[in-house]
Amino acid sequence: MSHLLLEDVIQLKADYPDRFHFLISNHELAEMTNFPITKANRMLNVLFRCGMRELYGDATERVREAYIRFIASCPLAVKLDTRVFICHSAPENVDRDGFEMEIFERPWCDEDFVPAGSVFRLVWGRDFRAQNARAFATLVGADVLIHGHEPCLHGFSVPNDKQIILDCCGRRACYLILPLDRSLSQAEMIEQLGHLS
Fold first, then answer.
1. Which of 6, 30, 100, 122 has the greatest number of CB atoms lying within 10 Å of its CB?
2. Last residue of a domain, one of 74, 107, 133
3. Cα(33)–Cα(25) distance, rounded to whole angstroms?
4. What is the CATH number of the domain that holds 147?
5. Contacts 24+ apart (CB under 8 A), 163-171
6. Same domain flag for 106 and 186
7. Where would I find the beta strands (DSSP E) of 48-173?
């Protein structure tokens, strides 16, 4: 059940606070804001809470409140000194509409979580056009953007010269270990990709 995975993540953050960074995705934002997510005609939010209710019974709401506090404490992105920017996805139409970079520095407000809001745009985006990726990479000061949020037949996808999309959920789930002391090109990063299975 997905709430048990979230508890594993919380334990990893407690055990390795400076070495483990959990980034907010669309599913965490949906849980924070009660935004409905459906997949295969199933309400994932409802299934998440049913699993919690089965395990925690009357304590479910207290446990959920603790989950929400944890999620709200997590970053939206990680930027490496090697000009790599890692976040769940990239906002759509950055090349046309721009993007509010202050979202990475200031406290969030309710307007950030609605469909036109900055946090929402960041975690729900699926704009893989090269122009959009270049515009976002320029804004965040990155040479390479690393995202998830998109199923990939081969465990990863390279939609343009700025993005690498990792899918760690499918049969060919991928991961990437990057050095922190030197930069790698996008092509070199692709060579470093590993498969979990």
1. 122
2. 74
3. 12
4. 3.60.21.10
5. 163/90, 163/128, 163/133, 164/189, 164/190, 165/128, 166/193, 168/196, 171/197
6. yes
7. 77-80, 84-87, 144-147, 156-157, 163-166
Cβ pair 20, 13 in contact under 8 A: yes
Instruction: Report the number of distinct structural domains present in the chain.
Output: 2
Cα(121)–Cα(126) distance, integer angstroms: 9
Cβ proximity of 126 and 149 under 8 Å: yes
Give this prediction's pTM.
0.92
Nearest partner of 79 among 33, 145, 161, judged by Cα: 145
Residue 172 belongs to what domain range?
76-197
Q: Which H helix or E strand runs over 38?
A: strand 38-39
94-126 pLDDT, tens digit each = 999 999 999 999 999 999 999 999 999 999 999
Which residue type is seen at 122? L
Report the residue count for the chain.
197
Listed residues 22, 44, 74: the one ending a domain: 74
